[in-house]
Amino acid sequence: MKKKYYITTPIYYPSAKPHMGHAYSSISADFIARYKRLEGYEVRFATGTDEHGQKIQKSADKKNLSPEVFCNEISKVFLDLTKTLNLSNTDFIRTTQEQHHKTVQKLWKILEEKKFIYLSKYSGWYSVSDEAFYSEGEIIEKDNNKICEVTGSLVEWVEEESYFFKLSEFQNILIKHYEDNPKFIQPASRRNEVMSFVKGGLNDLSISRNSFKWGISVPNSKEHIVYVWLDALTNYLTAINYFKENSFWPADVHIIGKDILRFHAVYWPAFLLAAEIPLPKKIFAHGWILSGDEKMSKSKGNILDPTEIIDEYGLDEIRYYLMKEVMYGLDGKINIENLKNCINSDLANNIGNLSQRIFVLTNKYFSCKVPDPKILSTNDKKFIEYSMSGLEKSMNTFEIHNYIREVISYSSKINKFVNDEEPWTKAKNSDPRVGTILYVALNALKNIFILLHPVMPSKSEHYLSCLNIFPKDISFESIKKNLPINRELKMPGLMFKKYI
Question: What pTM value is reported for the model?
Answer without folding.
Answer: 0.92
